[in-house]
Amino acid sequence: MSVPLYQAKAELFRTLGHPVRIRVLELLQDGPKPVRDLLAAIEVEASNLSQQLAVLRRAGMVTSHRDGPLVMYALSTPDVADLLAAGRRILGAVLTDRDALLDQLRADDARAVPAADGEDDRAQGREQAGQRR
Question: CB neighbours of 28 closer than 8 A, spacing ≥ 6?
């Protein structure tokens, strides 16, 4: 029985749900790398990196092969790098939208600030009204 496409996509994105895995994929965009180079660049325990590499391998996102004494890892397809680039673009758009919203909120706050003395009186009035209820 085959898995529905939406479920397979969910599994793919779950695979990307760990910062070490994302960092490994980012590093491999430049070409194959030995485990020792990945370990030096990511600065995690060797056992942790090994676990994350196994997850990426099982998901088919990376491949590995021996080159003499070294175990080399590479992206399984250039589409993985395209997916990471799309993620960066989406994140940039989301953060830009949040920055624009934050700027708008700050501008609205700046317009409301001049009534600072009156604000204390209004706040006290609201407190007193709340006590009377």
Answer: 62, 73, 74, 75, 80
Give SS3 for 72: strand
CB 121 within 8 A of CB 115: no
Closest by alpha carbon to 19, among 63, 84, 78?
A: 84
Token duo for residue 39: 């370990």
- What helix, strand, coil percent values describe the chain, rounded to 5? 75, 10, 15
Q: In this predicted model, what pLDDT tens digit does every residue of 42-69 receive, in sequence order?
A: 989 999 999 999 999 999 999 999 999 9
Nearest to 39 by CA among 104, 96, 47, 31: 47
- Between the CA atoms of 22, 77, 60 and 35, what dihedral angle is there, to the nearest 10 degrees? -60
- The model carries a pTM of 0.72
How many CB atoms lie under 10 A from the CB of residue 56? 25
